[in-house]
Design brief:
The structure is a single chain. By secondary structure, the chain is of the alpha/beta class. The protein has five domains: 194 residues, Rossmann fold; 140 residues, 3-Layer(aba) Sandwich (Rossmann fold), CATH 3.40.50.300; 108 residues, Arc Repressor Mutant, subunit A; 75 residues; 73 residues, Arc Repressor Mutant, subunit A. 46% of the residues lie in helices and 16% in strands. Helix 5 links the parallel strand 3 and strand 4.
Length: 644
């Protein structure tokens, strides 16, 4: 099948978004490819379609467990076979997944980067024979990036094992320096190609306010702009406080953060997607993998850490092409706090060495042991034990992860496991003494091969369906079998998790690089200065500032951000305004066009004046904007056709 036929068959779309087809053709030509597409720009399709068109399996490397699970589920819903390996999975399940990838008929294997170096993975790699390597969130490979992960630096080692296999790197936000790092660190060939979609969001209006009362300003915004909304906060406590405030003012709202149970997060997310709840007040744990096109406003209740985060989160508004708003509420003290936190976020080598030793003691890891082990961790308890505040403890653990000593996942879901601790002969005695539990023993034996050899992942819901009992009964009886020492049963957990990449080092062997720490801190300082400049600048177009930060200097003034509106000199007499309206509608009657096309065809009218008219037509929903193209709203076209 052609790329278009594959798109239609598996995804139900007739046409590609801008640059998708070019990226796909580059991958099909076996060229290393860097794709920089905005949030919601359809990055996954760019590697999924060539993988579906080629023989073999596509190896997808992603650092986010939640995103891995979401993408695998989406592929399965589209009838595409996919597997995943990530931190927290039992050894037996990892081995079974690798066997399936090597010898089964699967098209995608999603892997977290630290799993690439395990002996088990490398043992199966020759049999898996990937035909394509896709590196998602590729900015993680750069020390100049905002989310550096050392495990990404070793992805290039795969190229020695898989010569000739092309690599596609994907990200929504990478500065020119980070783009260069991605290509260098992934050993891109001379014929590699880089694609970057414009950072222009013509229907998204950026505004920044420094109000005396953020609560009152938020209320005003949500009353003036109806529809689905997101409010981003920096702390879990604040999400609940803002939600309570909105509810007390009769606005339908709910809160979301990583500390909720998986079931709780799913329920809240579903209610918001279905518009049962209008406003989601959340930390940045919310939004990844969610494509809700009709979000009208995204409010940042505090200044974000960097432009990368702000652009991705604000970009969740207005994906339906209609006018939408990104509003940032901030106080002067917040920019000072960002600078102050740099010392906490990037501790000195001496302090980091101390945190490492204390953490190993807290986890009871002896010197010379620990590599490959996972530990649930209560960071608040660790901080209290060693008299750190919670930020010092959290940032210290994250810094140790950047030193490549461990990985830290703030949210990790560990599947239930069960394994028999008795012999098969002992089970006959169980049947006599506890006949009411015999149904479950037989159900486990029929459902899980190898459960006598080692613990395996168990799925209580599936077991309940198979045995025709309630999930409550199944879980209760699993606990009874555990208490009787018949099985070892560990219920699912959702806790922060640490995975040790190395054995615990002896005190004298710990070497923290002052140079690398200084490099990362200098990079973070640049990001703080950039977001501070973005917030305090009251003259330059905000869309233009964001685009320039990512190296896109071809974006015109948007005409609709607070700076453009406050500094505009583009008014038109009513006759001229109406004439330009008619010209734009005629121009778009037959085909969609970019803003540059519209400017070119409407010369000598000033670009700012044209923008003013375009924004009016967007607000009136006469025009739609999609991926930097403008088009007439289909409803408007139908009205022009009249009755049939």
């Amino acid at each position: 099948m052609s790329p278009q036929q594959t798109l239609q068959k598996y995804y139900g779309y007739n046409t590609f978004r801008p640059l998708q087809e070019e990226i796909i053709n580059s991958i099909l030509a076996k060229k290393d490819t860097l794709a920089i597409l905005p949030t919601g720009g359809g990055k996954s399709i760019c590697f999924q379609i060539p993988a579906l068109m080629n023989d073999g399996i596509c190896l997808v490397i992603s650092p986010l467990i939640a995103l891995i699970k979401d993408q695998v589920e989406n592929l399965k819903r589209n009838g595409i076979t996919a597997l995943a390996i990530y931190a927290g999975m039992p050894f037996a399940e990892v081995k079974q997944t690798l066997q399936n990838a090597a010898f089964g008929n699967y098209k995608f294997l999603y892997v977290s980067p630290e799993r690439l170096e395990t002996k088990l993975f490398l043992e199966f790699l020759p049999a898996i024979k990937p035909s394509l390597i896709a590196v998602d969130e590729a900015h993680c490979i750069s020390q100049w990036g905002y989310d550096f992960r050392p495990s990404y630096l070793r992805i290039a080692n795969l190229r020695q094992e898989l010569p000739g296999v092309p690599v596609v790197a994907l990200t929504a936000s990478a500065t020119p320096a980070v783009q260069k790092d991605i290509c260098n660190n992934l050993l891109f060939g001379k014929e590699s190609i880089r694609f970057q979609q414009s950072f222009l969001r013509p229907n998204l209006s950026y505004s920044i306010f420094s109000p005396p009362s953020k609560e009152n300003k938020l209320l005003e915004i949500l009353k003036n702009v109806g529809g689905s909304s997101i409010v981003y906060c920096k702390s879990r406590k604040q999400t609940q406080a803002v939600t309570d405030f909105l509810r007390s003012n009769n606005i339908s709202a709910d809160y979301y953060h990583a500390g909720l149970t998986a079931a709780g997060r799913t329920t809240k997310q579903d209610n918001w997607i279905k518009n049962t709840v209008r406003v989601m007040v959340c930390t940045n744990a919310f939004g990844m993998g969610i494509d809700k096109p009709d979000v009208k406003v995204v409010v940042h209740y505090e200044i974000p850490d960097c432009i990368e985060n702000y652009y991705q989160e604000a970009g969740r508004a207005g994906r339906d092409g209609k006018r939408a708003y990104a509003v940032l509420l901030q106080h002067k003290k917040e920019t000072d706090d960002l600078l102050f936190k740099l010392d906490t976020r990037y501790p000195s080598p001496q302090k980091l060495k101390l945190i490492y030793m204390q953490l190993m003691n807290y986890l009871n890891v002896a010197a010379g042991t620990g590599e490959g082990l996972s530990f649930d961790i209560d960071v608040a308890s660790f901080a209290q034990n060693f008299k750190w505040n919670i930020l010092q403890a959290t940032y210290g653990i994250q810094a140790l992860a950047q030193e490549d000593l461990l990985t830290y996942n703030e949210f990790t879901f560990k599947q239930s496991t069960a394994g028999f601790t008795v012999t098969k002969d002992d089970l006959q005695e169980l049947e006599k003494q506890h006949p009411q539990l015999d149904y479950l023993v037989k159900g486990l034996l029929r459902s899980y091969e190898g459960i006598f050899d080692q613990p395996v992942a168990v799925y209580e819901n599936l077991l309940a369906k198979f045995l025709k009992f309630s999930v409550y009964n199944i879980i209760s009886d699993l606990k009874k079998l555990d208490a009787l020492k018949i099985i070892s049963y560990k219920p699912p957990t959702e806790k922060p998790q640490i995975f040790l990449l190395r054995n615990r080092m002896y005190n004298d062997d710990i070497n923290i690089s002052s140079k690398d720490l200084a490099t990362r801190k200098a990079s973070a300082l640049q990001r703080v200065n950039a977001i501070t400049s973005f917030v305090t600048n009251v003259t330059t177009c905000r869309s233009k500032m964001i685009a320039a930060y990512f190296g896109d200097n071809n974006v015109p003034d948007c005409g609709i951000c607070d700076n453009c509106i406050n500094n505009t000199d583009a008014s038109l007499p009513s006759k001229d305004f109406e004439r330009v309206c008619i010209q734009i509608k005629l121009l778009l009657q037959e085909e969609k066009r970019t803003i540059k096309d519209i400017f070119k065809n409407l010369k000598p009218v000033r670009e700012r004046s044209i923008w003013l008219v375009v924004q009016f037509l967007l607000a009136e929903e006469i025009l739609m904007a999609e991926d930097n193209f403008f088009m007439l709203n289909e409803k408007v076209k139908d009205k022009k056709k009249g009755p049939r």
